[in-house]
From TrEMBL, chain A:
Function: DNA-dependent RNA polymerase catalyzes the transcription of DNA into RNA using the four ribonucleoside triphosphates as substrates. Specific core component of RNA polymerase III which synthesizes small RNAs, such as 5S rRNA and tRNAs.
Source organism (scientific name): Oncorhynchus tshawytscha (Chinook salmon)
InterPro entries in UniProt: POLR3C_WHD, RNA_pol_III_RPC82-rel_HTH, RNA_pol_III_Rpc82_C, RPC3, WH-like_DNA-bd_sf
Protein name stated in the entry: DNA-directed RNA polymerase III subunit RPC3
GO cellular component terms given for this protein: RNA polymerase III complex
Automatic annotation (TrEMBL), chain B:
Organism: Oncorhynchus tshawytscha (Chinook salmon)
Signal peptide: none
Protein name as it appears in the record: DNA-directed RNA polymerase III subunit
A GO term from the CC aspect: RNA polymerase III complex
Compositional bias segments (type: Acidic residues): 158-169, 178-196, 204-221
InterPro entries xref list: RNA_pol_III_Rpc31
Source taxon at top rank: Eukaryota
Primary localisation category: nucleus
Subcellular localization(s) per the UniProt record: Nucleus
Gene Ontology biological-process annotations: transcription by RNA polymerase III
Record carries keyword Nucleus: yes
Length: 636, 221
């Protein structure tokens, strides 16, 4: 975001020349660290602290200095730095909260063994097979299995080792990819709203299996759909194929990137820093987008219908399953695997968020206009663009949905309203073609993130603290007295609120010394809010929240394990009795095996677990907004 | 933090900045400093906003729970092998027990994975199995040729991994060839492959000690 000139009282800076750098005035960088932008501060600190100590001690040192982040420990988990220069999700710094959440997600979906291996990889950076097995005390075969599972689901990548093509293969886990698991329900639901039940099942299957071939997906989905249909009807493969093609055409599914050959020379040379004389031979993993064919459908013809599974046909099914397997091998698309394109879904979510923000701020018609603009620029906008390509008003008018027939002058009025709105969703970039308009994606995300922050402060601390927070966001730096005046809150209460916010690290204190000796009586102390670090802080809080929710849910399940097992057993008995045609008296007898208080307990348990699960989904929406905002600022 | 500790002896407790500037008046009662970590469940002043309820939320909840349930049944859910029971029982061979360590229940595309991760794919146990013992002799020479090939390809540094991966690769090769034949009793051969000794040569020593009953003065070596 561009720095706006400071409004309001300028007397604090009167003595500073207009373009003085902060190096000749003010305390040195590491002291300023506690109110400055934390990530750059960290980079400075870590650059200076080059001691050969273990990661844990380094974290303690960092903790002592960066006193603002009192609850998070930034793990920079590799003393071997060859992958350090690589951009992308595999070289990210991971916080303790993220690793904890990743561990819980892995445990729930893949079991404890994979959780142990995954967490170890996340904490320790790139390692080879032997190291993992030794350090986690896991038998080698289990390690291999876990790594296969992680690679299958895209959570782990492998590459040739540091010492050149001959060294053992190294594996790196991706924290970001594991955190996506939290958002799976949202992806599946979106596919359902866009492409119906077929699309929903396709996305669900691909998510469950990591990546799949098209033929495999089509068959599985057809079988599932047939299973849910009434007797005698089954699902045609061609319908599933058409839904699959639509998903690929709109880029929701993409091909897996080809596996990099191991032992070949590095195709992309990483610039060698002066401190590392031996250039690492590791290549940056090829992304899916780098493959020119990534959205090309394979030429296979799948003809057939879904098969209905019957419980009595199990032995036939096995043989049939084997036959189906041999069929898929001859389908012609082995080796071409498809995975879900998360970035495309994120783009969709972002567009949805912008449209609903416009709808709630202005009105429905404006949101339709913005929706049209976003739809027109779907394919022309890159993922990290700050704004869409300019669209002329004529084009927009032509592309409006037919049921929204507004006249041309009205459209122009709406567009000018959108441009003048302080939220700055839409901007005008030229006058040709009736006016060229863009959607300011980056600014829209920043505004949405800011609204999230404000609402968090409001809900946790009350509306007056929220007023102070908003004031500081707009006016940047204010003294204690000025805060009281502008917010129109009595001094005592304003002080109290400011200190509460300060203790929660939502507000920072900036010292401006008047004299070079930094005498405290002659120094200004200004309160300030920086949106980006605050957003990061809140994001970490969100991760911690979700991890706590999962742990609580596991705890509740464990507490009532006996009861849950009993109820499952009774349900199984009931089901088998009903299938074999038992009398109602027998059924009620079995049902009464669960006593009334137990039933109540089960009901309460179910209610709690549903609430916890639902909360996780909703916290994930906030996580998405904050992550998108932070990511959009990174690519400046 | 050299810059911050300058002022000394300015009345109550020396702090690095002038307390008037931050807004604490003279002689005002400050809350006592707390010398313990924050409580685990701090009291919440403002109640949180209620959750969004609706069709969409409920549907996503159902999706989430179903997904979790399905994942537990898929082969990707890795369970460590159950430790061996106290006594080996005859029924172990025929009961579908927990998967053992060195098999994998699904068939990944091995071309997309590094060679060192290869484990044999487990085949389903069938009820009417037949032991084919003659195939155990074959892998030995095949193993030898594979060992030669492997040593050329891999460097010395991967020698350790070869030792364990050799056995499994030999097994996997055998596995692929037998897939076309149909049902094979798999576990027996694998069990036999794990040891270095051919089972038919095993002498369990029952006959030992039966001969030298007469001459008890001689030492037994």
């Amino acid at each position: 975001m561009t720095e706006e000139p400071m409004r309001g009282n300028r007397r604090s800076f009167r003595h500073l020349p207009q373009n003085s750098t902060n190096s000749d005035v003010g305390p040195p960088a590491y002291q300023r660290g506690w109110s400055a932008n934390i990530p750059s501060c960290n980079a400075q600190l870590f650059g200076k602290i080059n001691l050969p100590v273990s990661a844990e001690i380094r974290c303690v040192v960092a903790l002592a200095i960066t006193c603002v982040w009192d609850s998070e420990v930034v793990l920079r988990g590799f003393s071997r730095n060859s992958f350090h220069d690589l951009k992308g999700c595999f070289a990210k710094h991971m916080t303790a909260q993220e690793v904890r959440l990743c561990g819980l997600l892995l445990q729930e979906h893949f079991g404890e063994v994979v959780e142990r291996i995954g967490t170890h990889l996340l904490r320790g950076g790139a390692q080879n097979l032997r190291t993992i097995a030794n350090e986690t005390n896991t038998p080698l075969d289990l390690v291999k299995k876990s790594l296969c599972v992680l690679v299958q689901h895209g959570a782990c990548e492998f590459g040739s080792g540091r010492r050149g093509p001959g060294s053992p293969v190294e594996y790196r886990a991706s924290c970001e990819r594991v955190l996506r698991v939290l958002r799976y329900p949202r992806y599946i639901y979106t596919a359902k709203t866009l492409y119906g039940d077929t699309g929903e099942l396709i996305v669900e299957e691909v998510l469950q299996r990591g990546h799949m071939t098209m033929s495999n997906t089509v068959k599985t989905v057809a079988d599932r759909l047939t299973h849910n249909m009434e007797e005698g009807r089954s699902m045609e493969y061609s319908e599933v194929v058409s839904a699959f093609s639509k998903l690929v055409e709109t880029h929701f599914l993409q091909r897996c990137p080809p596996v990099a050959e191991m032992g070949t020379a590095a195709t992309s040379t990483t610039p060698a820093t002066p401190s590392t004389p031996a250039a690492p031979a590791s290549t940056s993993p090829p992304t899916a987008e780098s493959n020119p064919d990534c959205y090309k459908l394979p030429h296979v013809t799948l003809i057939g219908r879904g098969k209905r599974r019957r419980s009595s046909d199990d032995s036939e099914e096995q043989r049939g399953g084997k036959k189906a397997k041999m069929d898929s091998e001859s389908c012609g698309d082995e080796g071409i695997y498809w995975l879900v394109n998360f970035e495309r879904f994120h783009q969709h979510f972002r567009d949805q968020a912008i449209i609903s923000a416009v709808a709630s701020k202005l009105d429905q018609t404006s949101s339709e206009i913005v929706r049209t603009m976003l739809r027109m620029s779907e394919v022309t906008t890159t993922q990290t663009a700050a704004y869409t390509q300019p669209l002329s008003a004529n084009e927009i008018f032509r592309s409006l949905p037919p049921n929204y027939s507004i006249s041309r002058p009205i459209l122009d009025q709406y567009l000018s309203l959108l441009v003048d709105d302080p939220m700055e969703f839409v901007g005008k970039s030229g006058d040709s073609g009736g006016g060229m308009y863009v959607v300011n994606l980056q600014r829209a995300l920043a505004n949405l993130a800011r609204a999230t922050l404000e609402s968090v402060v409001q809900e946790r601390f009350g509306s007056r603290s929220a007023r102070i927070f908003r004031l500081l966001l707009r006016k940047r730096h204010l003294e204690q007295k000025q805060v009281e005046d502008f917010a129109m809150i009595p001094a005592k209460e304003a002080k109290d609120m400011l200190y509460t916010l300060l203790s929660e690290n939502l507000v920072q204190l900036q010292e401006i010394p008047k004299t070079p000796d930094h005498a405290p009586s002659r120094t200004f102390y200004l309160y300030t809010v920086n949106q980006l670090p605050t957003a990061r802080l809140l994001l970490q809080h969100c991760y911690k929240t979700v991890a706590n929710l999962i742990e609580r849910r596991l705890f509740e399940t464990k507490e009532n394990k006996r009861l849950l097992e009993k109820s499952q057993r009774i349900e199984a008995i009931l089901a088998s009795l009903q299938a074999s045609g038992a009398e109602p008296e027998q059924l009620t007898e079995v049902e009464e095996m669960i006593t009334a208080p137990e039933r109540q307990q089960l009901e309460a348990l179910r209610h709690h677990i549903n609430k916890l699960d639902s909360t996780e989904n909703q916290v994930d929406e906030t996580v998405f907004l904050l992550e998108s905002y932070i990511f959009s600022t990174k690519t400046k | 933090m050299a810059g911050l500790g300058h002022s000394r002896g300015r009345g109550k407790g020396y702090m690095s900045f002038s307390i008037e500037a931050v807004g604490i008046g003279k002689g005002e009662n400050l809350p006592p400093s707390i010398l313990q970590p924050t409580p685990l469940f701090p009291p919440v002043e403002h109640k949180p906003v209620p959750l969004v309820m609706g069709e969409e939320a409920e549907y996503m909840l159902a999706l989430k729970q179903e997904f979790r349930g399905n994942m537990k049944n898929l082969p990707f859910y890795v369970r460590p092998a159950v430790s061996k029971k106290d006594v080996e029982r005859y029924s172990d061979k025929y009961q579908n027990s927990e998967p053992s360590d060195n098999t994998i229940e699904w068939n990944p595309d091995w071309k997309r994975l590094p060679k060192e991760l290869r484990i044999c794919v487990k085949k389903a146990l069938k009820e009417n199995t037949s032991l084919s013992v003659e195939t155990t002799v074959d892998p030995k020479p095949r193993k030898k040729t594979r060992v030669d090939k492997e040593e050329i390809i891999h460097n010395l540094e991967t020698l350790e991994e070869e030792v364990t991966s050799d056995e499994e690769e030999g097994e996997k090769k055998k596995q692929e060839e037998e897939q076309q034949d149909g049902e094979e009793e798999y576990d027996e051969e694998e069990f036999e492959e794990e040891t270095d000794y051919i089972m038919s040569y095993f002498d369990n020593g029952e006959e030992f000690g039966g001969d030298s009953d007469d001459n008890m003065d001689e030492a037994v070596y």
